[in-house]
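Running co-folding for FE2/S2 (inorganic) cluster.
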Amino acid sequence: MIKLTVNGEVRSYDGDPEMPLLWYLRDELKLKGAKFGCGIAQCGACRVHVDGDAQPSCVLPMSATAGIKVTTIEGLSADGSHPVQRAWVEEDVAQCGYCQTGQIMTAVALLAQNPAPSDADIDQAMINICRCGTYVRIRRAIHRAAALMREGGK
Amino acid sequence: MNAIALTRRRALQISLTTAGGLLAGVPLPRAVAKAAGVQLGLYVRIEPDERVIIGAPSTEMGQGINTAMPMVIAEELDADWSKVSIEQLPLMIKRNPAGPGWVFTDFPAGAGGSGSMIDAWAFLRPAGAKLRQMLIAAAAQRWKVAASECTTEPGCVVHGATKRRLSYGALASDAAKQAEPDSKSVPLKARKDYRIVGRPQRNAQAQTIVRGTERFGIDVEMPGMLYATIARPPAFDAQIVSIDDKAARAVPGVRDVVRIDGPKPDEPLYILGSGVAVVATSYWAALKGRAALKIAWSASPWASESSETMATQMERLMRGRGHLVNDEGDFDGAIKKAARVIERVYSVPYIAHATMEPQTATAHVRADGCDIIASTQSPGLSSRYAAEITGLERDNIRVLPARLGGGFGRRLEADYVWEAVFISKAVNAPVKVVWTREDDLRHDYYRPAGRHHLVMGVDGAGKVIAYKHRLASTSKSYRRRGNDGSKPWEPDLYDNAFPSGFVPNFQREYFAVESGAPRRSWRAPGHTANAFAVQSFIDEAAHELKQDPLAFRLALLHDDTRKLNYGFDVPFVGARLAGVLRRAAKEAGWGSPLPKGRGRGIAAHFTFSSYCAEVVEVSVDANDKLTVDKVTCAIDCGLPINPLGVKAQCEGGICDALSTALHQQITVKDGAVVEGNFDTYRMMRMDESPRVIDVHIMENDYPPSGMGEPPVPPLAPALCNAIFAATGKRFRDLPIGAQLTKA
Ligand code: FES
Ligand code: FES
């Protein structure tokens, strides 16, 4: 029996230990915000926070999740009020929207470590793929979120 | 099928919603309503709580239709924009009253090109205007004043003289009792009075997207649903010889293994090949089961095909004569008289769609009906496949398009829907099929690969007198149902595209290349390849003739106002293409000096009735590192319903095309695709994306035209033209990839 915390709730798991966290979140807990894009830690669509760090959940086997604290996009805020979510709406980032939950989780982790990232910092941290090509607006949204956070958004 | 004429004629059906609001829409024949499980074909609901909801069978895949449609109704209805939302309706079809088969009722669902907006534009505007009149009539009745004394403000009716106001929500139930006004007595707004259409509006689904609660096709759940994944052939058209599924069936959670015998090598493609489906209680168990399968496959009839053999085949074919698609004037005579002849060869590879959301569909086949929810641009084709597999009447098949995690033309094919229906029928349970990325990249309908040979003859005065475009490609009409493949050039080399009509002696010649790789439409189909070759070539010719690339292009177009049939609803006008070229050049500072190692390139293209020009500015440093400093884009798409959405499509199209030009290539080896995931099929990320994208929308009175595709074709040639300006290196084979450092 594996115990882990997901969005503040303690959960127990006793299924296949090889199953990646992504499928546990999506298919068992029905938290569909983390998306499947590649399954090999390349695209970032499945990123969630593992103990505060943005990580691809598609390659993290359940056997390695004992005791970890997972935050998914659904746990980021109850009402979309996190400054990064607000900035994403204000900059009208999303097109199809499929990659955006992963993008937001990466951006939140970046801003937690670096409250005023430069363009070069953003280039380095934002390794998620967006097939719709929303990169210009993602960059603007990160700068806006940084400003919102400085103003005391959170 | 003329959806517009149908709906214009039809009166609205008005009734009360369950909450006591107003419901108005296009009535459906009873059988259709039963099959789809809805009452109206397209509707507007005004609820007592002030919400205005549009029901529409549209398909949202990021192109912004679910924002644009509410904007149109809100405009004519004078609704409060923040209260308008959209509800997805299923496919609606009925038996063809005029003959065999089935037809769409009123609104063909699905998205490809810009058809959905054109239909919605025709219905939503008069419907909105009529409902506004009915709300005014209801208010006038309550206040006992003349309707002519009342007017509206967003979301409410006002009586100016007494300063009274009533909200739409409060009036909805009374409005539902008013007689529907006659279309002729309800004028539509003039463009100059628009307050929503033509103004930037944000994505209407932004909130649910950023919270992770927007539901895509891959998120669909049905009670008792099983998951399926399919083992696919190791090479094109390999067939199943034998299956050993003992180990697969032993995996906990695996429920069944289903053999799928796909099309034979000479049959049309409805799915991409044979396969063995593993069905399980979880997707993970299905994947494990698939890994445990032992399948013996027959040798592929294409086993000797590789990217190299294809290139050799193209070269060999082009040494001979092909099919003449255009032959205007006397090319052979003119080229002999030319003072100068310029010739170049360009090539483009196969590329994959790689929609961010892998292909997925969920189906439940029962004895008396079938439910399908899928990420599809083709609900109609999905329904047809389901009827063929199940033998059910099509009005017992319900297809609900889910939000798509990207389309790009991939989801005009319904092969994965076919799979979900077939497997559901076989195991007698609801089944969700989810492809892995490897499935998706190795089994796609690729954008055709091609080799382009261009020839230009110029007279002593520098005027273009002869022009020829020769193309060898793997046609997109390959094994397409209802197409015998006898005109393979049609979807690849258009007989009516720029510079047709601008050069007196003109030819296009086509060579059909054989390949086992399936291929179909990829965002802005043949245009991506053709614009790369044509717009690179024109640039090379300008440089060789020592002319400015912009001036050379403008001289070719010379503000021509003839209407040419270039194959779209709205005819091509050279002056509009010249217009976007000038605008993009002006905004980009074309001609102003740049430091060493920097350069600008320009290109323009017409497609889907829209015109787009782009100027790319690049830097190449001492280590051959390329940076795209800026892309300036001018787009003429008629009336831009949502300018913010048009800009998003331009930015996205530019990034998509840049990613493709830099990196993307599907390699064939031993009759199979090499690249399997994003580690080898490289996509552009943030670090390579343009530093600045500056989009300018042309103002004019033309009706709305396409905007999903038009920004894509000009980018690759403008990029290569810019790299040439910066470095003197010319790239004629895509992708650029590592060539920059090698050159
Ligand atoms: S699905 Fe995990 S990184 Fe792509
Ligand atoms: S918004 Fe579609 S993949 Fe990023």
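Result summary
The two ends of chain B are 53 Å apart (CA to CA).
The first strand of chain B starts at residue 13 and ends at 16.
Job closed.
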